[in-house]
Amino acid sequence: LQGQIPEAQRRQEGDTLYIQCPYQAWTTDKETKYWVFEAPGARQNIVYTYYESTKKSRDGRTEIKDNSTSKTVSITMTDLKVQDSGTYFCAVYRNGYLQLRRISLNVFRAHIPGVFQGPNSTELRCQATSLSSENTFIILTVVLLILLLLALVTSVALGVRHYRLLGRAGNREAEDSSDRAEGTAQPGSTGKRESPKGDSKGPTYINLEVQSHPSPEDPLYCNVEPSQAPRNPQHVEYAIIAFNQAPRSERE
């Protein structure tokens, strides 16, 4: 078997290799069986067994078992790695290795092209966290801008309303000043308009100062300018003025 081409065995990294090596009838049970790694110019005994025993290698990944009933040696290699690739043979040692079976093991690494490789879970979590942070920042910025605009509009509206109220108050003061102007009376008399202090909405009075002594038959009246006329006719009060005739002295 040493000059023959070894059997090709191809496995993926992490797989298991299981082979059987039958030995001839003339091989006794007590002879030691070996599983050997053959490198250029060197050989390494990985594991061996004899007489119905099961043995494991130092790393625990290779196991060999001798079955004397079926006269077969079974080899199992688990958790294969790329560096396990090479030529192996099982043999009985008798003044040298008497090879029973040779194999050429090729362990390859599972490779997925980069164009088909997606991001791992860590990258996905990082991307999701980044997107969540950006979305939160955008939402907060929009909310703050809306609140700022609302505050600006409210300030402008309050300012306009205050300005209008000031304008109305000024107009009322001007009207009250005109209401306090003097009224007109008939010729020969003077009239003054008076109103209660502190109450511009109360009744207004006209005082007449008669300069001469009119006769009881003479009419007495008073003119009121439009600016002095009350705004609410319901609150207009009327008064009748009458003069009592003074008794004449006997001299007259």
TrEMBL record:
SMART domains: IG, IGv. GO terms for molecular function: signaling receptor activity. The keyword Signal applies. This is CLM5 protein. It holds the Pfam family V-set. PANTHER family: TREM-LIKE TRANSCRIPT PROTEIN, TRIGGERING RECEPTOR EXPRESSED ON MYELOID CELLS 2-RELATED. Keywords: Disulfide bond, Immunoglobulin domain, Membrane, Signal, Transmembrane, Transmembrane helix. The keyword Membrane applies. Residues 170-182, 191-200 have a biased composition (Basic and acidic residues). Residues 170-235 are annotated as: Disordered. Signal peptide: none annotated. GO terms for cellular component: cell surface. Residues 1-104 form the Ig-like domain. The chain crosses the membrane at residues 137-160. The gene is Cd300ld. InterPro entries: Ig-like_dom, Ig-like_dom_sf, Ig-like_fold, Ig_sub, Ig_V-set, Immune_rcpt_domain. PROSITE patterns: IG_LIKE (PS50835).
